[in-house]
Design a protein that fits this description.
Length: about 525
């Protein structure tokens, strides 16, 4: 059904290019922007919406999302649309929902349950998965990556052994199938099993499938003591793929604070030598991931029962304590979500004090009691490093929020990332100008990932738009009460259809699955 024209008036325009704000009227017809002109250009009588006092921007693009499962939820996930996000890159950190092999079905299912709420894995390859998600519909536009960890599980299961030639062929074939089905690139998460056991050669072999013009998106092997070495590895693999994107660039651990400039210099050097390299960050000094990430990698081989058997062996507890205690500050690890919802919002130090055990025993007791299904928030970064990374012109914005539907107290970046950039780091701390902040959320990520027809307010572009109040926009969630809708974002539209009005989500699901621009 054809929709009537709509004229957006009264706003200051942040068109996505980073150029200064300017007053403009924007005419929409059906799902497209048809004209952008000076105020008063269009004749009276055109249906219009008054956005006086607001900034009108392209719909925001979240370049680092774990909402792969959002289409499969019975209720609409509104954590992103209320931030003005209209497009999400999913499948990050090596986690995608496909491929699935019958041989390792149970391994994949139990592994995904450590991150996602329970899933009924009815698909095999990416064509099957996308047919399922397409039928369910999308709240935000869906841009999937192919996870190296999932590829490896499909080929070899949860093992630390190097994949043989047959397994490598299986992985390459699945990657090719995923790219043909419309994926945007290959992602890796090199701190998680089984990817933590992969060699650079294994990843480079997969990168050849991308043909020198693809995207390698990586949660690197190390973001602390070995940050620069990990960047070098990522750049070697990305050079084969064609383009490199560093996920959630950060410096972790107090002894490493202050080394962000060296990391940015290394990336700039790669660009100087002709590599296509970008990075994203989230605007918080705490990270979040699975609680199992605290354990030494070799404890994570095999099935959940294998891992739990190791954890309940008293001799192994002593080894784990020796391995992790010197590098772990227990009062900086906050339990975010668990399967039973026990312990949420408490630090491991607090749990240990309350139960009268050593912190490492509290860690193991939580993991065993929850059968490994627990996520943490880790306070490990410094504000100066964050602001330095944010100020770099090659930095896009990603929420890295936990998948929707897990419950508990997830990291507040799930609900607050984009308004926090606009409020704290643009209006209050002036790390970015407002036009530059919008650019990092719109046209820059559209270029990085080849997202078609979005990221700019210009004639011919899809009318994915957000209007926000630059004086009041800010995040409201915190670590104890994270699921708070942000303030100052009253209006969002997708493909010309209003989906948030006066801050209220209207529905229905108006996003689509996108395929990359060639």
């Amino acid at each position: 059904m054809t929709r009537t024209e709509l004229l957006l008036t009264g706003a200051q325009l942040a068109d996505g290019t980073g150029t200064p704000l300017r007053p403009a009227d924007v005419l929409l017809h059906d799902d497209r922007i048809t004209a952008v002109e000076a105020p008063g250009t269009f004749p009276p009588g055109t249906p219009r919406r008054d956005l006086t006092g607001l900034v009108l921007a392209p719909g925001f693009i979240d370049v680092h999302s774990h909402a792969d499962n959002a289409p499969l939820l019975p209720t609409d996930d509104t954590t992103k649309i209320h931030q003005g996000i209209t497009t999400e890159i999913v499948g990050n950190c090596g986690f995608s929902l496909a491929p699935r092999s019958s041989t390792h079905h149970d391994t994949l299912a139990t592994f995904l349950q450590r991150l996602f709420p329970p899933l009924d894995l009815t698909w095999t390859g990416f064509h099957d998965l996308f047919a399922t998600t397409d039928a369910a519909g999308y709240v935000t536009n869906y841009c999937p990556l192919i996870g190296h960890g999932t590829l490896r599980i499909a080929a070899t299961g949860m093992t630390d052994a190097a994949p043989d030639d047959d397994a490598r062929r299986t992985m390459r074939t699945a990657l090719e199938e995923g790219m043909t089905a419309g994926a945007f690139g290959l992602s890796s998460g090199l701190i998680y099993p089984p990817a933590v056991f992969a060699t650079t050669d294994e990843l480079t072999d997969l990168a050849t499938v991308l043909g020198g013009n693809g995207r390698y998106v990586t949660h690197m092997r190390n973001e602390g003591d070995a940050l620069i070495d990990s960047l070098d590895e990522a750049l070697r693999i990305g050079a084969t793929a064609g383009r490199t994107h560093i996920s959630h660039l950060k410096v972790t651990g107090a002894r490493n604070w202050g080394t962000m400039q060296a990391a940015l210099d290394r990336l700039d050097d790669a660009r100087h030598h002709g590599q296509h390299v970008h990075q994203d960050i989230y605007p918080y000094t705490a990270s979040s991931t699975m609680l199992t990430a605290v354990l030494p990698a070799h404890y994570l081989v095999g099935s959940p029962d294998d891992i739990l058997t190791r954890l309940t062996n008293p001799a192994n507890r002593a080894e784990i304590a020796t391995a992790v205690t010197t590098s772990t500050q227990w009062d900086r690890i906050l339990i975010a979500t668990t399967a039973s919802h026990r312990h949420e919002g408490r630090t491991l130090a607090d749990i240990a004090d309350t139960t009268g055990v050593e912190p490492v025993d509290a860690l193991i007791d939580v993991l065993v009691g929850e059968r490994l299904r627990a996520a943490m928030i880790h306070f490990s970064m410094h504000e100066d490093d964050l602001e330095l990374a944010l100020s770099d012109p090659h930095t896009a914005i990603g929420s890295d929020g936990l998948p929707p539907g897990t419950g508990g107290k997830p990291h507040p970046r799930l609900t607050g990332t984009f308004p926090r950039v606009l409020g704290r780091y643009t209006r209050e701390r002036a790390v970015l100008t407002l036009p530059e902040a919008v650019h990092r959320m719109t046209w820059l990520p559209a270029q990085i990932f080849g997202i078609p027809d979005r990221g700019l307010i210009a004639p011919g572009k899809i009318a994915d738009l957000v209007a926000f109040d630059p004086r009041t926009v800010h995040d409201l969630g915190d670590y104890q009460d994270p699921m708070q809708q942000p303030a100052g974002i009253p209006w969002v539209c997708q493909s010309g259809r209003t989906v948030v009005d006066e801050g209220r989500y209207l529905g229905p699901r108006s996003g689509i699955r996108l395929t990359p621009r060639t």
